[in-house]
Specification:
Length: about 1500
């Protein structure tokens, strides 16, 4: 017998084999067209009437015969064989896909069957889903996320993830994790966000799969506003209902005032506005009122309320609503809209096939959809059936779902049949109210299923969505031709193949006895489980004795389900805040369950971001069958493209119109035939058989009535294309609605403004359930009164499971809420408001008590206690007049108790709840002294037996009670910096250079602790967190060319100095945190471009610190700095860029101390020992030595006489630190050098501020780098020592230091002020002792370097001045320099006021303003510089909380790098006193 290639016209090799003249062998072998590695695959082998024993072999044969895989090899003796062969899919030999041959061989004495088909081996990558704990985050919060890799059966993979990374909105990779190992399939990671990250959308990416979340500024409100309006309104409608409701997150109604604007917008995009015509800006009406007890306000709006005469109106109505809560004045908003539609009724076909089987009834459903998606019931539908030009009409009534099922007799059908479903317009018009609805019809074209003997199987369609894990009954109809059946057959095997997720999931057989007759039906139970979800194809076939195969298939859709049945429940559905509960878990044994519980507001914010069954199912791949393995067409190209088609002049999208019939182009013919073969092909199955599965080409093209044509059935006489090649259901009769469609505007609805719901996460845990498959987790309900939404997924060997969402309402029958200002100044008064909410169904009599406090003065007229009735679903506000008398954080405690009383509340007797009878709320209030804070620090490095006196003096103009002092003692010179590494400066961190002071010191501290063996996991985690945060922030200041500048892209160019600083810091940080290599490469490449021919580096961009005269602004010192940065990065001194730079530096000379110190350090780094030693000797001669301290200072820059306190300018600290680094960078540090270094360290330690930093940013970075290097060289496990602090009265306090607590910051308050304190150290080792003194004074007069005037507009208390006023800051520089460095204005606001966001946005656009930072009570403005010319900066303050007797607020202006250059001013709000407010009322 020849090979299949010998018969090019045939798709299948048809073999009729006989043995001794007996019945012919029939064989059927089927396999998935695509075999997925590494999963199990199934092959079906069916042999019947085998005349003799035979050897059956099935192989996967690779090209060239290398590596063939035998799937089945068996000697078969019996005549009928059914084999279900399961095997593990082999991997493709190369890449992810490989095409191989599936070869079937049946060999016997007189049998020689050989057939092959192409199949594909495809490596299936695991699907990945990513879950975040929230959809949106605030700056500074921690992003928590989980990653799970799943195979197609939803079993989690324990394979390592090679790379996980997170990108910011600019595409920078801000974090990455390599070779992450899952825990039972779950990877659990987190990342802290920077305090000032880039706002926008962030992306987590793993293996090509992404998950996004946003970082935004959100405030979590107490309630949401909902707008209930119709989804659509018909053009004929005269009015519609608007209902606006307020609901707290725990579900209770909000009492308050509603204000809504209802608008029908103009179609601006479609018209040209002519000024003389009516204004297009508004077409709105205002509605509003008080909410009812149910928290809702409703009203009817008449359509005639809008300007209906203007033809330029959109077919849309928008409602903008606000609700102001009673008692607090808190306002929330929402926006919603609906469309105004014509009355359209649309008919569609459901559950229909695009072919029929003659003799078996054709079934389907018509569905009627009314306006807005409604399902009209008892409407008359008409089904028109057209066969060979003869039309029959059937009428039906819709049911309650708008559906009408039909069943059609097909026994008289022989060719193409068209169906049209439509509304009985006449009957419907009689029911309508005089308007003219529009109707859309449904069309379908049915082709005859091809069978030579007219024998058929047909599976009844199952319901649209089957429940999971519930067996289904398959109902099958059949018709057999007597001749094809023969006379000797006693029974017929009907085989059912269920194809799901790319494999044969189930195989069933039904033996059909012949006594049942040639026509009938039977049923079969189909097991249904998660392995079939979400869709499966059921294909049944039988081979008749004549050799013809009859077949049918149906697609089934299942509810999405998972193999692991998971359940999550709280032990109670409602609980009091703070109460203990149990979380009950159930899952398959040995499951690991990932729990997540979040505030309901998370879901209100972004419900689509939730992990759901739909999200999990999205990880499934597409189980497609590619064209590369498609079987060749059975007919030659002549039959696919007959000559008549080649000469047709095609037009109108390749469709030729001829006598109102369509002659369809060749691709139509290729797919026209519907037969058994096509069913296997559509099910992605490869079929190897000798059964007849399709008719010959000649028969195909000589079908009755020639090639298929479809007549138009449009009632308007328009031509409608009804393609037989592609299903044409649900086609629209366009002419009926085309003219109306022009009225609908093209603009889409604007998305509503983002909700101000900031989500909170309660539970985020991984819990194993053990062998029992259950666990209980004790949890404590948070204090928030809200609804918590919890969910869980579990991984197990059986697969993944997802629980349904459960809720817990944290709720009290009644509770109290407190409204406070953020902060007040001592002496100011305000009204404290406590609102009591009652959500019982009965009245309560409550006693509300404000706890006595020495820090508060309460109005005597009221006292501290109230009592009164609060009835069902009501709220009542109680108020006290309070005056702040003490400084610091004052706790305000309100206690509310339901009391038993015989006194009635109205007509009701008050009740006392069994649970939650008392509610107590404690809220802190910050009471500030006002004025200007003065902060002084005295630091000493006391070694062995040493003592000193510290005099704490106070000025005469100190604000009463504002003085405070403390002493800190540590056993390590790096200890203070380590404790305060996130706040080394009492200054803002708003630009690219200042941010690095939070980044770089972490590297030096970790290097020191690592080398000294003191780096604990906790310290490492803390430092890495700060590095990660600083890295994120610094990327905000990167330019597209790879450089960095103080304010990023808002600067004209990058900055040479800052780019070098960032480059070396990123390079050194690689040892501790993931840094994307591209950022280092980009910065290095940019710096290399700035190198001059001389080898020095060009100064590009503005450097803010111009105090370093001849310093960084000078080319030589800049080049020295860049060279040092490259050497610290690890670049070799012989590398061309560095080598050329060193040549330039060695050839230059300078008298500037700062540059000399820097050059000495560079020589040390480069290993140039002679130059290094010479430069050090020169520097030592120019140092200033006093009282065992050694430092360097600029010419004419003498230190202040009061040397007890840290007072050195940043430039002095920085150059002295460079000299220290130069001493410590030698290959061998001599004892003389170390002795000199210890003198420098003692001076540097004295300059430390109370936070472990220094005066400004760069001096802090360099000094800490130098101190860390010194600490590393001198570290030793010294013995114990004791530091004794003696107060003026003689009382003492001892601080014991040993190796176990040398990094612990020990602190004690110093209460005797003013006074002379003595500090003494005894024992071995050194101690870092720091005394800090703080007090407040009124703003001093101008110092002469700046002039600052502060004004308010209005200046006096009138009109709306108490609600809002403008603040005008007029500033100029009056010092000796032409301009300042970067200048900073810190403007504090009066108590109860906050900055207006709109005015701050305007301020950012003002001249010289580089950045604006907003705190609750302060606005910080970064200025490029200030000159001798006065500049004015303006923003608006709005009242957030009324405060009386307002004290003046202060504004401070200073040079960031010369912090001694500063001035302060005070101002008062226009309505500061009771007299002002009285004058306003009179006004």
């Amino acid at each position: 017998m020849g090979s299949p290639a010998a018969l090019p016209c045939l798709l299948l090799l048809v073999l009729h084999l006989t043995a001794g003249g007996s019945a012919a062998l029939h064989y059927v072998v089927t396999s998935p067209a695509v075999i997925y590695h590494p999963h199990a695959a199934t092959l079906w082998v069916h042999l019947s009437d085998l005349p003799q024993p035979a050897q059956v072999t099935v192989q996967l044969q690779r090209a060239g015969g290398a590596g063939n895989i035998t799937l089945l090899e068996r000697k078969v003796q019996e005549p009928h064989v059914h084999l279900n062969v399961t095997f593990t899919a082999p991997a493709p030999s190369k890449g992810k896909e490989e095409i191989v041959d599936l070869h079937v061989s049946i060999q016997g004495d007189s049998l020689d069957v050989s057939q092959k088909k192409k199949v594909m081996l495809r490596a299936l990558e695991p699907g990945i889903f990513i879950q975040t704990d929230k959809a949106v985050y605030k700056p500074g919060q921690q992003v928590k996320f989980r990653i799970v890799s799943l195979d197609k059966d939803f079993v989690a993979s324990d394979k390592k993830l090679p790379l996980v990374f997170l990108k910011d909105p600019r595409g920078n990779r801000i974090a990455q994790w390599r070779d992450v190992s899952p825990r039972q399939g779950i990877v659990d990671l987190s990342l802290p966000l920077a305090a000032e990250p880039a706002l926008g959308t962030y992306t987590i990416e793993v293996e090509g799969r992404t998950r996004s979340f946003s970082v935004e500024e959100y405030v979590l409100p107490k309630f949401e506003v909902t707008i209930d309006i119709p989804s659509t309104v018909l053009e004929k409608d005269e009015k519609f209902l608007v209902e606006i409701c307020g609901r707290y997150t725990y579900g209770k109604p909000v009492q308050g005032k509603v204000q809504a604007t209802v608008c029908r917008p103009f179609m601006f995009s479609w018209v040209i506005y002519v000024p003389e015509q009516s204004s297009p800006s508004t077409n709105c009406i205002e509605v509003g009122g008080q909410t009812e007890k149910n928290g809702c306000f409703s009203t009817e709006v008449l359509m005639t309320s809008f300007n209906q005469t203007n033809g330029r109106l959109q077919k849309r109505v928008q409602v903008k609503a606000s609700l102001v809560e009673e008692g607090t004045g808190l306002e929330m908003n929402n926006t919603k809209s609906f469309d105004i539609l014509p009355e359209i009724y649309k008919v569609t076909f459901e559950n229909t096939k695009d072919f029929y089987k003659r003799g078996i009834p054709y079934t389907g459903t018509m569905r009627l959809e009314g306006p807005g998606g409604s399902a009209p019931k008892e409407k008359q539908l008409v089904l028109l059936v057209n066969h060979q030009g003869q039309a029959t009409k059937h009428s039906f009534l819709t049911d309650t779902l708008g559906r009408a099922s039909f069943k059609l007799d097909t026994s008289g059908w022989t060719s193409t049949v068209t169906l049209r479903g439509q509304v009985n317009e006449l009957a419907n018009t009689q029911e309508s109210s005089g308007s003219s609805p529009h109707y859309e019809s449904a069309f379908a074209t049915l082709r005859p299923f091809v069978s030579k003997s007219q024998s058929f199987l047909q599976i009844h369609q199952l319901e649209s969505k089957l429940p999971c894990s519930q067996p289904q009954q398959l109902q099958v109809d059949y018709i057999f031709n007597k001749e094809a059946f023969g006379t000797e057959l006693k029974s017929l095997d009907v085989v059912f193949l269920v194809m799901a997720k790319g494999t044969i999931a189930t195989i069933l057989r039904k033996e059909l006895p012949m006594e049942a007759g040639l026509r009938g039906s039977f049923s079969l139970e189909l097991p249904v489980g998660p392995e079939l979800a979400p869709t499966a194809t059921v294909l049944c076939y039988a081979v008749l004795p004549s050799g013809e195969m009859v077949a049918d298939s149906t697609k089934i859709s299942l509810a999405k389900c998972l193999p692991n049945k998971v359940k999550l429940a709280f032990s109670e559905e409602r609980a009091l805040p703070g109460s203990a509960l149990r979380l009950e878990l159930e899952a398959a044994p040995r499951s690991l369950c990932a729990i997540r519980a979040v505030d309901r507001s998370v879901l209100l914010l972004k419900p689509e971001a939730e992990l759901s069954m739909e999200e999990i199912y999205k990880v499934l791949p597409n189980f497609d069958s590619p064209g590369s393995i498609r079987d060749p067409e059975p007919c030659s190209s002549f039959w696919r493209h007959p000559p008549s088609s080649r000469t047709l002049p095609m037009r109108n999208r390749d469709v030729f119109l001829h006598e109102r019939r369509y002659i369809l182009p060749p691709p139509f013919w290729e797919n026209f035939q519907v037969d058994a073969y096509k069913l296997f092909q559509d099910a992605a199955l490869k079929l190897l058989t000798n059964a007849e599965i399709r008719t010959a080409c000649e028969e195909w093209f000589s079908m009755p009535r020639g090639m298929p044509t479809v007549e138009s059935m449009s009632p308007t006489g328009e031509v409608v294309l009804l393609s037989s090649a592609y299903p044409t259901r649900n086609r629209m009769s366009m002419p009926a609605v085309a003219t109306r469609m022009l009225d609908v505007p093209p603009s889409q609805e604007e998305p509503p403004a983002p909700r101000s719901y900031f989500p909170e996460t309660w539970l985020w845990d991984l819990v194993p359930v053990g062998e029992e498959g259950s666990a209980e987790v004790p949890v404590t309900v948070p204090d928030a009164i809200t609804e918590w939404t919890a969910g869980m997924f579990c991984t197990a060997p059986t697969g993944l499971g997802l629980s349904r969402t459960v809720t817990l309402t944290a709720f009290k029958p009644f509770f109290v809420e407190l409204a406070l200002p953020y902060a007040v100044t001592r002496g100011e008064a305000f009204t404290l408001a406590a609102t009591v909410f009652n959500y019982l169904r009965q009245c309560l009599r409550v006693r509300v008590t404000l706890a006595e406090s020495a820090e508060l003065e309460v109005s005597e007229t009221v006292g501290g206690m109230y009592s009164g009735c609060v009835c069902a679903d009501e709220a009542r506000t109680f108020r006290w007049d309070v005056k702040a008398t003490s400084l610091g954080e004052v706790n305000i405690t309100i206690s509310t108790e339901a009391i038993k009383s015989e006194e009635l509340c109205g007509n009701e007797e008050p009740v006392v709840p069994a649970q939650g009878r008392v509610d107590t709320v404690i809220k802190p209030l910050l009471v500030q002294p006002g004025g200007i804070l003065v902060e002084k620090a005295h630091s000493s490095l006391l070694c062995q037996e040493a003592a000193e006196e510290v005099s704490l003096k106070l000025p005469e103009n100190i604000l009463e009670g504002s003085q405070r002092a403390h002493v800190t003692v540590m056993g390590d010179i790096m200890g203070n910096a380590l404790q305060n590494v996130d706040r080394l400066l009492a200054m803002p961190y708003g630009c690219g250079e200042q941010n690095m002071v939070r980044f770089a010191p972490n590297i030096y501290i970790q290097q020191y602790l690592e080398k000294s063996g003191q780096l604990t996991p906790d310290i490492r985690a803390k430092a890495q967190s700060f590095l990660q945060s600083g890295y994120q922030r610094e990327l905000l200041y990167k330019h597209a060319d790879g450089s960095y500048s103080a304010f990023g892209e808002s600067d004209d160019s990058g900055n040479t100095w800052l780019t070098a600083f960032v480059l070396k810091s990123f390079g050194q940080a690689r040892a501790y945190v993931a840094i994307e290599e591209q950022h280092i490469t980009d910065a290095l490449r940019w710096l290399q471009k700035q190198q001059l021919k001389t080898g020095c580096f060009r100064s590009v961009g503005k450097l803010f610190n111009n105090a370093l005269q001849g310093g960084v602004s000078d080319e030589l010192s800049l080049s020295a700095y860049v060279t040092a940065a490259l050497l610290e990065l690890g670049v070799s001194p012989t590398e061309p860029t560095v080598s050329l730079a060193l040549q330039c530096l060695e050839a230059s000379s300078t008298d500037d101390l700062y540059t000399q110190a820097l050059l000495a350090y560079v020589c040390g780094l480069a290993g140039r020992e002679k130059q290094h030693e010479a430069r050090l000797q020169s520097l030592v001669q120019r140092g200033v030595s006093t009282e065992g301290l050694l430092f360097w200072q600029r010419k004419g820059k003498a230190l202040p006489t009061e040397s007890l306190w840290a007072a050195a300018a940043p430039a002095e600290v920085e150059m002295t630190a460079y000299v220290l680094l130069a001493h410590l960078t030698q290959p061998q540090v001599s004892s003389a050098d170390l002795s000199r270094a210890s003198q420098i360290v003692r001076w540097l330690s004295r300059q430390q501020n109370p936070y472990g930093g220094f005066a400004s940013t760069q001096d802090t970075v360099v000094a800490l780098q130098a101190l860390a290097k010194y600490a590393t060289l001198t570290y030793g496990s010294n013995g114990n020592s004791v530091v004794t602090v003696t107060a003026p009265t003689g009382s003492t306090q001892d601080f014991v230091l040993d190796t176990s607590n040398r990094l612990v910051l020990q602190r004690a308050a110093l209460h005797e002020l003013p006074g002379l304190y003595t500090v003494q150290a005894r024992g071995q080792g050194c101690a870092l002792v720091q005394v800090t003194l703080r007090y407040n004074v009124p703003p001093p007069p101008n110092t002469g370097t700046f002039e600052l005037r502060v004004e308010t507009d209005p200046k006096t208390c009138r009109a709306e001045a108490s609600a809002r006023f403008r603040l005008l800051l007029r500033a100029r520089y009056t010092g000796e320099r032409p301009t300042t460095n970067m200048a900073v204005i810190e403007a504090k606001l009066p108590s109860g006021y906050i900055p207006d966001k709109g005015s701050v946005a305007e301020l950012k656009r003002q001249k010289l303003v580089k950045k604006v930072e907003v705190q609750t009570d302060q606005v910080t403005i970064y200025l490029d510089q200030l000159t001798k010319e006065e500049e004015t900066f303006v923003f608006t303050a709005t009242q957030d909380f009324p405060v009386r007797n307002l004290q003046p607020a202060t504004v401070t202006l200073y040079d960031y790098y010369e912090t001694g250059d500063r001035t302060d001013a005070a101002y008062s709000a226009p309505c500061s006193s009771e007299d002002d407010n009285q004058a306003k009322e009179n006004f």
